[in-house]
Predict the structure.
Amino acid sequence: MTLLAQVKDGKSAKSQTQRHVPIEVHTAIVRSPMNQSVSHPYEDTLALFRRETRVNKSSETTHFLFSRCKACELLPKHLVKEQPRGLPARTAALRYQECPLLLRTSPHSRSLPEPVRALLKKLQGEGVGAVLARGVAGGFSVNILGALIGLVAQAVLARLMGGEQYGIYAYVFTWLSVLSLAAKLGFDTTLLRYVAAYKAKQQWSLLRGLLIRTNQMVVVLSIATGVVTAIVVELLSDRLSSDLVRTFWVLCLILPLSSLCSLRSAALRALRKVVLARLPDEVLRPTLLACLAAGCYFVFSIEVNALLAMVLQSVALLAAFFIGAYWMRLAMPDEVFQSAPEYENREWIRYAVPLVLFSAMNVILQRIDTLMLGAFLDTTSAGYYSVAVRIAKLMAFGLAAVNMIAAPMISSLYAQENMEELQRMLRLSALGIMAYTIPVTAGMILFGNYLLLIFGEEFVAAYPALVILALGQMINALAGSSGYVMTMTGHQNIALKIMSISAVVNILLNWLLIPRYGMNGAAWATALSLVGWNVAFVVYARRKIGLRTTVL
């Protein structure tokens, strides 16, 4: 029996679809430039399934929603991916698109209260609030899981290595974030904006060209940056400890891999695959690092020092890269790889260059305190302070979860000139961020010293710095997605000026405060700088762009 005949057999289709769950929702789109009613040879097949028709008059597109049993494969993809025969190409074209939402049915679904079922149905839609809620929920879950695993991994390393060796490792790993700026040249943020825009406009050739060109340029730039770093470290080797020099050598080797991981994560975020974008770096990599370090110490009785920790970090990074690359290949639309690449190198570079400076200022604001603390005092103090910085960043998890899905949505809605929906999305984001940030700030101030005890008693010395950093991160979070509003709407040059001024102020404050107040001085410099540039972004976004990123 042919598949079509099997589907037409009402009893067979009904019995099989009832027996298998879950049900996956798909969309078949019929485009008609004359806004005519178009039939196609699979209409009788679709009629046997639950169907809902919506007509978008602005794009003259008809959406047919129908269900297909995943287990039975009653309506496989090839049936709807083909061009319908007998229809002129100028009249209609049939395209298959898989909906990102999987509807799962169960015998107990009908027992849910009506308000709960209404809420679930609303969250299953494709509106701004539903997409934002699903993205934030996924991103927040991954961030929380990643934070817990990351803290455990760093606690394991600190316990196994001791304060001195952990300080060297944390100091070099901080330099990895700084050097990645030159290696990526802002192309990660470029992917975040243009992948979302090209996908919304279905410009598959440009999307493929963007993926190819950004990877090529980042590989070349990261290798060049690693070579220059290795030369500088060699020239300064007589002033640095041998452990620090050898750890820097490993950093130079893993720099290209780290930069490519950032590109992969940005591309997945632009496709709104928030969970897949964060899992390799936030969950898999620290888990593997902690397991490898514990295995070396407890199983093979190998002393874990800064050099070995960086080598193990490279192994974990390699595993995260390949898994993330595989997920990105699955998430990317098939049309991308079926299209010949087109390149807009000038536009991409013109957009990326201000962004690399913007990212450089951002990293300076977040990392220069640790680097200057290590230079003015010692790497041990830098290690203690880096733990306080890591814990304080828990404050910004609500903001980070929102930004992972909000950034591509800002780009897409702004490209469509849908300012009303964009403002609604920003307000919903701000409310969610505030609901998370305020109680976490209170908990951080009350119980921060106990969190530091996980790493060792000597790390409690960083508690005052932790409180100061937590207050600064609270203001940063309550400012909302102001930074992405600037960069995703074409105001990156103004954002760069604001960040540059804040970075200069941060460096001056660290230079003045660290020699006198140590870790607390570094914390005050970072907190004041965070407050300054966030307030400037919020004011500019409201007055010049007409968007409010806070709840006020």
Summary: The first helix runs from residue 3 to 8. Confidence is low (pLDDT under 50) at residues 1-112. Residues 31 and 508 are 59 Å apart (CA to CA). The chain has 20 helices and four strands.
